Amino acid sequence: MSKTTAAPAEFEPEFIAGLKTIFEEKIVFNQVLGLQVVSLRPERVVARIDMRPELVGHYAYNRLHGGVISAGLDAMGGLAVMAAIGARHMDEAPAQRLLRFAKLGTIDLRIDYLRPGIGSHFELRAEVLRLGSRVASTRMEFFGPDGQLMSAGAAAYIVS
């Protein structure tokens, strides 16, 4: 006997627009990083950062600063948790679900830098491994313009 799993629900345009506004405009540090949401699905989120001079480390010209990579991956883990919480509460109106993110915060973060952050733009992906009632665990990835994995991360977030 095979077990079937229901496909994750699709988000309403109102929820997607609201979450993008929170992530790209209301979180000022994400504005500084230039994080732009590319895809927002319950099971995975994707964003992009374009290389800009102010994101480069002072000691390494044309290399994205490791702090930018870390902050970007942390933000993506948080966005993945927001999407997972939004998917968990699809019975609520989109505006009501958007109010659930006020207490979200990072409690643990690990980043593995695999290659230098060289390129014109970068893609960041994140997914939730487990969404509990108080803590969520995530996995994040940072790719160069050629699709090569440059950094990977894991994090835990408080969701109460």
From TrEMBL:
Superkingdom, taxonomy of origin: Bacteria
A GO molecular-function descriptor: fatty acyl-CoA hydrolase activity
Keywords linked to the UniProt accession: Hydrolase
Residues covered by the Thioesterase domain: 62-149
Presence of keyword Hydrolase: yes
Entry keyword Manganese: no
Gene3D superfamilies listed in its UniProt record: Hotdog Thioesterase (3.10.129.10)
Residue ranges of coiled coil: none
Family that this chain belongs to: Belongs to the thioesterase PaaI family.
Protein name per UniProt: Thioesterase family protein
Upper classification of the organism: Bacteria, Pseudomonadati, Pseudomonadota, Betaproteobacteria, Burkholderiales
